[in-house]
Known about the structure:
- A five-stranded mixed beta sheet has the order 1-2-3-4-5.
- A hairpin with a 5-residue loop joins strand 2 (38-45) and strand 3.
- It is α+β, with helices and mostly antiparallel strands.
- It has two helices and five strands.
Amino acid sequence: TFMSNTKETGNYGEIQASNYLVKKGYTIIARNYYGKHGEIDIIAVTPDNTTLVFVEVKTRKSKLFGYAAESIDKKKIQSIIRTAENFMFENPSEHQIRFDVIEVYYKIINNDELILDEINHIKNAFYDISNYI
């Protein structure tokens, strides 16, 4: 079934998160950006065009085992920050930078079809990045 594949589930979450951001007026610049330190799920620009947002998407079936964002550990945050630095080096910009997490929660219907249950957009998720550098 669809659910047995975590990559498919993650991809579903990234599509839902991208759609959510576009509806909110963000411009998606990249999806699945790979740098030598890791990957960033979504890179977008805020509706007012002032801020470049690096988004980590976490997709979960429920909050039973805690919120999706809680699964992001210090090592993952360091990887995201280094990958963002990589992107900025390759694509110099005057934009401010922000790190967000989007939690995508879904339900399964008809045994294998995913439907969106809830999206939780956590802006400035890694508030003080100096802790991670």
